[in-house]
Every structure is written in C-alpha cells, then in structure tokens.
Amino acid sequence: MVIWAILGGVVGILIGVAIGYAYRKNIAEKKIGRAEETVVKLIEDAQKKAEAIRKETVLEAKEEVHRLRTEFDKESKDRRNEQAKMEKRLLAREEALDKKNELADKKNEKLDARLKEIAATKEEIKRLQAQELQELEKIAEMSTEQAKELLLEKVEQEARRDMAVMLRDIETAAKDEAEKKAREILSLAIQRCAADHVAESTISVVALPNDEMKGRIIGREGRNIRTLETATGIDLIIDDTPEAVILSGFDPVRREIARIALEKLIIDGRIHPARIEEMVNKAKKEVDAQIREAGEAAVFDVGIHSLHPELVKLLGRLRYRTSYGQNVLKHSLEVAHLASIMADEIGANARLAKRAGLLHDIGKAVDHEMEGSHTQLGAELATKYKENPDVVNAIAAHHGDVEAQTIEAVLVQAADAVSAARPGARRESLDNYVKRLESLEEIANSFKGVEKSYAIQAGREVRIIVKPDDVDEVGTALLARDIVKKIEKDLDYPGQIKVNVIRETRVVDYAK
C-alpha cells in the first residue's frame, strides 16, 4: 500500500510538472509573438522616419544649391560690373595721359624757344656790361682792378669791425652756454652706478652644492623664495646656471644680507619660511657688525676722531658700494690721504682736508634709498650730524655743483679726480665699450639719408652727417629726434648721449 501511494504521488507530481510546463510554454509563445509584433512595428516606424529625414535632407540640399548658385551669379555680375568700370577708368586715364603728353610736348617747344631768347638776351647783357664798364672807367679815371681793390679794402674794414662785434657776442653767449652745460654735465656725471657695470655692482652669485638645492630654495609653490625676497628686498634669479643662484638688487647692503643668509641656509639644510626669517635676522646683525667695524677701521686708518657714530656706520656701508668698479670706501680713504698730503705741501689745514676727503662720498651710502645726488645727500648728512661747515661745503662742491669756499674744498676736488682717474682705479669692459660705440653708429646708419656717423667722446656723443639732397633743414631736426628715441629704446648707457646731426651744403666752381 505504501509503495502504491508513493507511486501515485510521483505520478501526480509528474503530471503537475507536465501541465505547468505546457502552461508556461503557451505563455512564452504568446510573449514572443507580441515581441515580434513590437519589433516589426519599430522597424516600420524607423523606416518611415528615415524616409522623412532623407526627403528633408534632399530638400535642404536643393535649397542650399539654389542659394549658392544665386550668390555666385550675383557675385559674378558684380565682378563684371567692376571690371567694366575699371576698364572705363583706364581708358579715361589713357586719354588724360595722351593729353598731358601733348601739353608737355608743346611746353617743351615753348621752353626751347624761351631758352634761345634767354641766351640771346645774355649775350646782349654781356655786351652792354662791357660797354658800361668802359664808360665807367673813363668817368672814374680808374681801372677795374683799382676799383676792386678799393672796394675790397672798404669791405674788409667793415667785415673786421662786424667780426669783432660778432666775436664778442659769440664769446659772451658761449660762456653763458658753457656754464649752463657744465652744470648739466656735472649733475649727470654723478651717477649712482654706470649701466655698463650693472653686472658688476648689482648682482652676487651664491654657489650651490648641487642643482637639487634649487628646488629646496624655491620651496613648495615658491613659498621659500618669496619669503627670502620679501625679507631681504632682493630678487633671486634661479635659471639654468649650474650650481649657482644669482642675487640681484641695487642696495649692496641688502644684497650682502641676502647672500649671507642664503649661504647659512644652504649649510644648515633646513629651508622653510620660519628658518629663513631667522637666518635673515642673523645675517642683518652680522652685516651691521661688519659695517660698524669697517667704518671704525677707516676712521682709525686716517686718524680722525670725534666723528658721529652714524657717520662711522655710513662709512662702513661704503665697503659694499662700488662706482665704475672702484670700491667707494677705499676711494674715500685714498682721497683723504691725497688731500692731506696736498694740504701739507701748500700750508693748508691738512686735518680739515683729510676729514672732508674721507666724507666726500658719504652720500653714496644712501643714494639708493633717498632722492638726490650723492653730493647733495652727503652735505645734508654732514649738516645733520653737526660737521664743520667747511667740511659740508667740500662735500657739496667736490663735483662743482656749488662753489668751493675754501682751499681745502678745492683740494678735495683735485684728490677725487686724481683717485678716480689714476690708471687701474676704474675699469670698463673693453668689449662692452666697443659694442656700445658700434651700436650707436649702427643705429644712426640705419636711418635713411645718413651718409656717415661717428661715435665720439667715449660714446657720449654721436655725430651724424646726412646727405643734403635727401634730408632738408626741417628733416635734420626730425631725424635727430627719431635717432634719440631709438637710442633710448635700444641701448643702456650712463648719463646722456648727445646726437649731433650735420647737414652741409657745398658749392664748387672753378676759375678758368
């Protein structure tokens, strides 16, 4: 019984499975039929849309072709009209030229006839002049040569008198102009530093142990280099130069502080904003100590006492100042000794001359920070710190800006000139000097109408000779202005450059 019951259950299950399978198959076939109908419908819709898009595209293409054809026809018509107009203008010009040629031929014929009349008239004038000359000789009872001699004698006397008056006026005007020009030249000669020596006096180079150090100096997003530049006021130039960083700035003391601080940071190895500020402060203290020691050593060297401490400190700053490659502190010591020696020789006040010579360039210690020439600044500083008025005058007058009131001031002028002008005191790169002269002449020769140009006065003047047929009197002034603008734009130079444009007209004839 149990077996039959089990068999019955199994058979029932099998029958249920078969019935379920048949039911699911029927449902699946219905779904597949509906899906096929949907796919067919979608394909028909897509075909209809594609046909509509094709028709629309064909229509748009036809419209574009029609538009382009219309524009082409219009443009062709415009070109034909323009060509016709140009042909008409050309025909009109040809007719006008023909008429002008005819008029020119007629004018040439008239000119030929007129020239013949003029030649005949000249011959008649010569005959009449000869006749009048003979009659004048008879009336005056004097030959032509005698009359010429008498006339030349009178003209010579009048010319000599006029020349004397003119020379006196010219001499007076020349003196006035010379004094004015001398003041200008002297003020311009007192330069803080020459342009051609910027590389010697405004940069310092710091050696690096390796090129990886450049990245550490720059820091993340440049924070280290910005901190160092802000703290010192000096620009750091990090380029392709191997194992080197360039410090650039016009203040030599700040540049020295930056150099010492950067060298300390490189040795220490810890480079970050806080450490940078700490090293910069230490470098400032170190440089201040060096400045004070240099000033005290200079004062001790020349044997001057009772000098104001601030002036001693300013003297020490001159240790880091150069002028045309000459160290200003050493130059000041040399001027002090020279002025003292010359004062002893002529019986002047040697101590006053030595003091004025030592302080004569004190203004160069602050001329990068304050407005004015170093003579003016030096006199103001000496007055501020209660220096002798004669010393103040010697400082102010050592370049001729004011009149020297004492013999010691004149001696300081002479000592300054001797120290600066002696062989080897100051230097300029020969290559830079020659290049500046060549550049001046090249700029002048690049302008139309220039025949020759000469750079003279050590590059302070360029003389330009122009072709008189190509450049008129007004053109010379315009040419000079254009050359000045180009020189100011293209060249770096100390002081000023005088541009002298010369237009010379010569008339040559021969006596036969």
Question: Which features would summarize this protein structure in a list?
Answer:
single chain; 512 residues; mainly alpha; flat
Description of the structure:
The chain has 15 helices and 8 strands. The protein is mostly helical and 512 residues long. The strands form 3 sheets. A 3-stranded antiparallel beta sheet has the order 1-3-2. Strands 6-7-8 form a 3-stranded mixed beta sheet. Helix 11 (374-384) runs antiparallel to helix 12 (389-397) and helix 12 packs across helix 13 (407-421).
Write the layout of secondary structure elements.
Blueprint: H1 2-140, H2 144-189, H3 198-201, E1 203-207, H4 212-218, H5 223-232, E2 235-237, E3 244-248, H6 252-268, H7 273-302, H8 309-317, E4 322-323, E5 326-327, H9 328-346, H10 350-359, H11 374-384, H12 389-397, H13 407-421, H14 430-445, E6 450-456, E7 461-466, H15 473-490, E8 498-503
Parallel strand pairs: 7-8
Antiparallel strand pairs: 1-3, 2-3, 4-5, 6-7
Helix pairs in contact: 5-7, 6-7, 7-8, 9-10, 9-13, 10-12, 10-13, 11-12, 12-13
Brief rundown of the structure:
With 512 residues, the chain is mainly alpha-helical.
Number of helices: 15
| N-C termini distance | 170 Å
What general form does the structure show? flat
Strand ordering within the main sheet: 1-3-2
Order of helices and strands: HHHEHHEEHHHEEHHHHHHEEHE
From the alpha-carbon coordinates, what is the Rg to the nearest angstrom? Answer: 49 Å
The portion of residues assigned to helices is: over 70%
For the sheet with most strands, the description reads: 3 strands, antiparallel
Secondary structure category = mainly alpha
What is the strand content? 5-15%
